[in-house]
Design goal:
9 strands; 10 helices; alpha/beta; two-stranded antiparallel sheet
C-alpha cells in the first residue's frame, strides 16, 4: 500500500474502527433478526437512499414500462435495497442451517464432477438473491474457491471485511484488477466465482438482457476463453418460507473470437432472466445498468411483467 497522507490515514483508521464495531454487533445475529433490522434501518435512512430508489425505479420503468404501477415499482425498489444489504451481510452473520438450503439444477453434478477431475471452472452469478450464502455453500463443496471482489477504498476496512468473510466461508479473495491471479487459479484446476452483471462503460459487448440491449462486462467470458474453462451460470434466491434455493445451469464452454464471447455472455443473461422474473424483489435494480450515451437500453423484444 502506498504511503497515504496523514489526514487520509487517520480517516481510514476511524472508518475501520466503525467497521470493527459494526462487525462485533452483527456477529451471531440470526437471519430473521437481520431482515427486520434492515427494514427498520431503511425507513430511517430513506432520505439518504433516495438516489438508489430513483435508479431502481428508473430501471424497472425501462424494463417493464406501464406493466407495473408506480406503487409496484416503488415496492420492488424498496425490497431490492433491503435484499442487497442483507446479501452483503449474509457472509458475516450467523450461518443458515444447512437443512434450509437446497441445491439443484442440471449443472450441479457436472460442476462437482469437473472439479473432482481437476478441471478449472468459473461460476458466474448475477446480483440476485443471497449470493454470499451461495458462496458459503460452494466453499463447503469445492476445494477453496477463489472469489473476484472489488476491494474497499479503505485498506484497513478491506482487511477487516475479508477476515470476517473468511470466518464463515473457505475462500480465497482476488481483487478484480488481478487477472493474472485469476488465470493462475483456473490453470491449477481451481474454481473462480465472479459477478457477471456489473456495469462496464468500457465494454463494447452488448447482449439482450431483459429485452434490452445491455453492456456486459466481458471479463468472465474472456477468462473462459483464455483458460479454456467452462462458465457455469448460478443463481441463489430466498424463498418466502425461509428456505433457500441454489440453482446451477449447464456449463457454457468457450469458443474462439468476439462472436463466441458475446454468445457466451448472452447465454448467461438468458439463463438468469426467468429467475429475475420470478424473484424481481431480489435483483440488484439499484445499479445503473442502462445509461444514455453508451448505446445500451434499446428495446430488442417485449418482456412480460414479473411474477411467479
Amino acid at each position: 500500500m502506498a504511503q497515504a497522507p496523514l489526514q487520509r490515514k487517520l480517516r481510514w483508521q476511524l472508518e475501520a474502527l466503525g467497521v470493527r464495531l459494526l462487525l462485533l454487533a452483527l456477529r451471531g445475529r440470526s437471519h430473521s433478526s437481520m431482515s427486520r433490522g434492515i427494514a427498520q434501518a431503511h425507513r430511517l435512512a430513506r432520505p439518504w437512499l433516495r438516489r438508489r430508489h430513483t435508479t431502481a425505479i428508473a430501471n424497472l420503468t425501462r424494463v417493464y414500462g406501464e406493466q407495473l404501477s408506480q406503487g409496484e415499482r416503488e415496492a420492488i425498489a424498496e425490497q431490492s435495497i433491503n435484499s442487497f444489504f442483507l446479501s452483503c451481510l449474509e457472509s458475516i452473520i450467523q450461518p443458515v442451517d444447512a437443512c434450509l438450503i437446497s441445491a439443484e439444477g442440471e449443472g450441479l453434478d457436472e460442476l462437482l464432477r469437473l472439479h473432482r477431475q481437476g478441471q478449472g471452472v468459473i461460476v458466474g452469478s448475477l446480483h440476485l438473491g443471497c449470493w454470499d450464502l451461495g458462496l458459503r455453500w460452494l466453499s463447503e463443496q469445492l476445494d477453496t474457491p477463489s472469489v473476484v471482489y472489488r476491494p474497499a477504498r479503505n485498506p484497513y476496512s478491506d482487511e477487516l471485511l475479508n477476515r470476517a468473510r473468511q470466518a464463515n466461508s473457505y475462500c480465497n479473495w482476488i481483487p478484480q484488477a488481478d487477472a493474472r491471479s485469476m488465470l493462475r487459479c483456473l490453470h491449477r484446476g481451481g474454481s473462480l466465482v465472479v459477478m457477471t452483471d456489473l456495469y462496464s462503460r468500457n465494454s463494447e459487448v452488448q447482449v439482450d438482457f431483459l429485452g434490452l440491449s445491455t453492456n456486459f462486462v466481458k471479463g468472465p467470458a474472456a477468462l473462459s476463453q483464455k483458460s479454456g474453462c467452462p462458465l457455469f451460470p448460478v443463481a441463489q434466491v430466498r424463498e418466502a418460507n425461509g428456505r433457500f434455493r441454489l440453482i446451477f445451469g449447464a456449463p457454457l464452454w468457450p469458443g474462439q473470437g468476439a462472436a463466441a464471447l458475446s454468445d457466451q455472455l448472452a447465454a448467461v443473461a438468458r439463463w438468469h432472466e426467468p429467475l429475475i422474473q420470478a424473484y424481481p424483489e431480489q435483483y440488484y435494480w439499484i445499479n445503473r445498468r442502462w445509461r444514455t450515451g453508451d448505446g445500451s437500453g434499446e428495446r430488442l423484444r417485449p418482456i412480460g411483467p414479473p411474477g411467479r
